[in-house]
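Explain this protein:
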Amino acid sequence: MQRLSGLDASFLYLETRSQLMHVVGIMELDASTIPGGYSFTRMRTQLNARVAAMPMLRRKLENSALNIDHPVWVEDDHFDIDRHVHRVALPSPAGKKELNELCGHLAGQALDRGKPLWELWIIEGSADGKICAFLRMHHASVDGVTTAEVLGQLCSLTPDEPDVDPEKVAETAGGPNRTGMVISGALNYFVQRPIAMAKLLPQTAGVPIEWFRRSRSRTGMPAPFAAPRTVFNGPISPHRSIATTQLSLDDVKRVKNRFGVKVNDVVLAMVGGALREYLSQHGDLPGSPLVAMVPVSVHDADERDLVVNGTNKVTGMFTELPSDVADPVERLERAGELARRAKEHHADIDANILRAWAQFAPGTTLSTLMKFYGDRKLALNHPPVFNVTVSNVAGPDFPMYFCGAKVAAIYPLGPIFHGLALNITVFSVDGHLNVGILTCPDEVPDVEVIAEAFDHQLKALIEACDD
């Protein structure tokens, strides 16, 4: 039995039918490299062997009406791969548009909380002969780093089937223990939490004041609720739309080296430029910079003062995007300056502040408030917390194989929220920069235009390299 941390559990409490809290991984696969050819039945059998050595994918939620702390994970003793790995075919002839439409539909479905919180769809029928693996995992069970780890464990370095680690096969989350769950939950609630609060208050009391001061003096991160309103910041429905594009990592590094910036600066400059291009076309470009929230891993942070460590080890950094700058080179330089300012401020804040405060998240109350917030469309009644979530994850710079199929592209995607209807995730792997964009079509009906704008932004920066 493994207790969820407050941050893990918060993704359960925040979830409504329209605000789904799972992360997505889309893998485009070249089936021609599979030894013996592609067979769904054989692929599912191989996946069953791999999942047997991945304890994180075999655990499910358990709770009790008497448990006053967060839920726990337990081993699913009746785990069945057929309940998690499915097969679907695209209508012929099918291209990228049809694939993205199907992926958007699948991303809009809730996961069944009665079984381990993940599922994998093998999508066939693409006109180019590729197959696609569409993976969904609940954010309560993974963060950005663990998502990359899961993808890495599902893949291998060669087309051959990898050996399974017997120690991982034997590892288990443990069985349900309702009495132990209630007693340990009560100890956490009545003993550990007050101690944690006593330590946390003096450590964090000055953070909001200092944040506001640095925001006003423009020497730190922008303050929450200071972002301009855009089409990205309305209430969302259960519907999802997805767009992807693949860029050359060598081109990105050429820009980085030419202008003396970092890859992350190039990414943020392209995000700012792409969103500027999109909003300009729709007559919705604000005069002030857009604000992005960038998830930051804190897997190396000291966890001694946390009640429960949990799986989600992440915090958030706010940074302005140079969406108000027209020239691509000036925009790149501005992106680097804004990112450095935000990082300096973020480094001065306790890395575990979000995880520490999330431990006190009230489950039933938070779930009720979130449903009320969404149903009443309250996101329209206050300034946006920020405009867009932007993640940049560095993956392996070598080829990977999924059940023998060479991975042509990987696009991880995070969730969206009421008032925060746009998520952009960038994942570099095997010489490519893969850009995945997830949104709600009620707010952004033409998300593919944003993906196309990334191609325009990189092309403009490459042309500037030759000037």
Summary: The chain has a mean pLDDT of 94. The longest strand covers residues 85-94. The chain has two domains: 2-179, 207-388+426-465. DSSP finds 13 helices and 16 strands in the chain.
